[in-house]
Amino acid sequence: MSLAKYLIKSFGQEFYKINAGFLIVSFILIIGYGLFIKTAGHIPTGQERTIYLILLLSFVQSPIITLMASSLWLIYTLKCWSYVWKASCLEEHTFWRYSTNALPISKQFTAWCLFQLYLFVPLVIYWLLATIYGLIVGNLMIPLLTCLYLVVLVIFSALIYLYRFNFSKFKKEYRFNLMDLVRELPKTPFNAFFYEIFLKQKTPFFITKILSFTALFILLSSISEIDEPLRLTAIIAITLVASHCILIYLEYKFSLNHLYFIQQLPYSRIRVYAQLMLSYFVLLLPEYLWIYLMFPISVVLLFAPLSLTGMLLIRSILYFKSAAMRPFLKMTFIWFSMTLTLILFDLAWALILINLASSFACFYLMFYKRSHLAIK
Questions:
Q1: Does pTM top 0.70 for this prediction?
Q2: Structure confidence by residue, pLDDT tens digits, 185-241
Q3: Where does residue 30 fall: left (phi above 0), alpha (psi -120 to 50 degrees), or beta otherwise?
Q4: Hey, what long-range contacts does 316-322 have (CB within 8 A, 24 or more apart)?
Q5: Which of 221, 245, 303, 313 has the smallest count of CB within 10 Å of its CB?
Q6: 255: closest CA among 352, 323, 165, 177?
């Protein structure tokens, strides 16, 4: 606790002085949305207290403003990391480089968590008020999710600071480089492609996600106006799969060139397939979180397994074709056309089983074919 107190005095108070402008602008931005968009700028006479409740109401009952606040919180967290990273290089903070790491890691971790909570005081206050209001109106789902979100941010921030003061090299430049941190994180054969995305494939990733969320916004704007919402959901799901075909191809090429040794390791095919499924689930996690917040559960239960099994199936296409982009895109288009036909005949639920069974059969039969082994 004493360490956390001194960390707050050394880093925390100066942080608030530097970032006061960001906090004020963020507060005004959320007020502008909650007050002028949610109420059209009109507060009825005699209901002046509405101005104090409108932001809490929007936070608890509007996923859009929740996502806006969560995005601002993430930006704020990145500013915390950047400030500590830069400040640790200043001469007046040289002492911390050689003193904090003399304590046990567990004590350092606790102190940094308390330090980050101090930096999160504005966020915690807003969350507490929203939780109280959620208790009043009987809606606690979003406050509980944001509580978990804040806890994750605090823990991850403490780990960042632990790494900075215990393992990183202090250089003269003060610029915080997230890529340097990514390179130092542990890597396994089953998460290596995500580091490839962060380091070398950022442009295809962001273009893919823009296309993906464009499709989701089309679903959001149209689902309440049509007679067959689940049919539209299935069409958007396979569109999402098609938009990720470039990333799937890049993942296959990366595995072929850098992870070929997996076929010589004592891993069962079921384990490798399960890890591939988990990797694609993580790749689609932003979309899944968004539809969970924005759509009814019936949409989520169809969208998530259909898109995930669809990605697994078009990934299995690459075991039959050479690793060339053009034939893979042709086969992806053929798959899209066939699945679209099945969806129009209201066979979307059956399509999930077809995708899963077909992808697993192709993977199981072709994974150890000699033509796909790096060592023949």
A1: no
A2: 666 667 777 777 776 777 888 888 888 888 887 777 777 667 778 888 888 899 899
A3: alpha
A4: 316/358, 316/359, 316/362, 316/363, 316/366, 317/362, 318/248, 318/249, 318/252, 319/362, 319/363, 319/366, 319/367, 319/369, 319/372, 320/362, 320/366
A5: 221
A6: 323
